[in-house]
Design brief:
- It comes from Oleidesulfovibrio alaskensis (strain ATCC BAA-1058 / DSM 17464 / G20).
- InterPro entries: Aldolase_TIM (IPR013785), DAHP1/KDSA (IPR006218), KDO8P_synthase (IPR006269).
- GO terms for molecular function: 3-deoxy-8-phosphooctulonate synthase activity.
- It is a single chain.
- The protein is an alpha/beta fold.
- The chain has one domain: TIM Barrel (Alpha-Beta Barrel).
- It is 35% helix and 18% strand.
- The protein contains 9 helices and 13 strands.
- Strand 5 (131-135), helix 6 and strand 6 (160-164) form a beta-alpha-beta unit.
- Helix 2 (28-45) runs parallel beside helix 3.
- The longest helix has 18 residues, at 28-45.
- The mean pLDDT is 93.
Length: 272
């Protein structure tokens, strides 16, 4: 399955789209099951879908937390899922050396929020020519993502997206500033709302992060109304048993209903 970077990026610019999947690759079977659910939800509501999962969660709270199968096995699984479902895939990179091998499999490289200002990492991602999605750090103002976009453009890559995932509000809490969507869209890039990480409570359970998935639909609907081109949703067949980010993950069985709600809002022709 081959996707033209230019065509894929144009599709994402035109929207609407969802990025969805389990936080981390727990097993091939679970990832494939979730990817098929994502594909069915997107087809039902006529939105573009990208499958998301990480081969390594390098920023877990505890050193003993599950991180994933690693790059070699993880990329093998993602390639098989991509072929099996026909979905483009997106996954995180944490080090410059990962950019080229990951780009050989993934259609979109994702820069984690904590690493959004890492120049060498951004430059390595840009050099692949792939679409690059940068998550806005919890510590970064939306207007300060301008230099991030400039770094990628200066490195020769115009296929850039930005993701809002909440801002730190005291300790162990995040809030969403809905001005972020219009501010970051003024940088002439598609803007995504990470609806599930925005309800995370970072480090809120001591050895791992907490979260409250009840607020995912309301925030996602508000973000689409505020101008988000796409919505990012970590989803899992059984979030309470997920090995990573379970408290803020959305149940895969309820994904289609949520996507339907979002599509209805995307369909509104606003006068302003």
């Amino acid at each position: 399955m081959t996707f033209s970077t230019t065509e894929l990026y144009k599709t994402l610019c035109d929207g609407p789209f969802i990025i969805a999947g389990p936080c981390v690759l727990e097993s091939y079977e679970l990832a494939l099951e979730t990817a098929r659910i994502v594909r069915e939800a997107a087809d039902r509501h006529a939105v573009t879908a990208i499958f998301k999962s990480s081969f390594d969660k390098a920023n877990r709270t505890s050193a003993s937390s599950f991180r994933g199968p690693g790059m070699t096995t993880g990329l093998e699984w993602l390639a098989r899922i991509r072929e099996e479902t026909g979905l483009p895939v997106i996954t995180d990179i944490h080090e410059p050396a990962q950019a080229a091998p990951v780009a050989a499999v993934a259609d979109i490289l994702q820069i984690p929020a904590f690493l959004c200002r890492q120049t060498a990492l951004l430059q390595a991602a840009a050099a692949t020519g792939s679409v690059v999605n940068v998550k806005k750090g919890q510590f970064v103002a939306p207007w300060d993502m301008g230099p991030v976009v400039e770094k990628l453009h200066a490195a020769g890559n115009r296929h850039v997206m930005l993701t809002e995932r909440g801002a730190s509000f005291g300790y162990n809490n995040l809030v969403v500033d809905f001005r972020s969507f219009s501010i970051m869209r003024s940088l002439n890039v598609p803007v995504i709302f990470d609806a599930t990480h925005s309800v995370q409570l970072p480090g809120g359970q001591g050895s791992c992060s907490g979260g409250d998935r009840r607020h995912v639909p309301a925030l996602a609907r508000a973000a689409v109304a505020a101008g988000a081109n796409g919505v990012f949703l970590e989803c899992h067949p059984d979030p309470d048993k997920a090995l990573c980010d379970g408290p803020n993950s959305w149940p895969a069985g309820r994904l289609s209903d949520l996507v339907g709600d979002l599509k209805s809002i995307w369909s509104i022709d606003y006068a302003c």
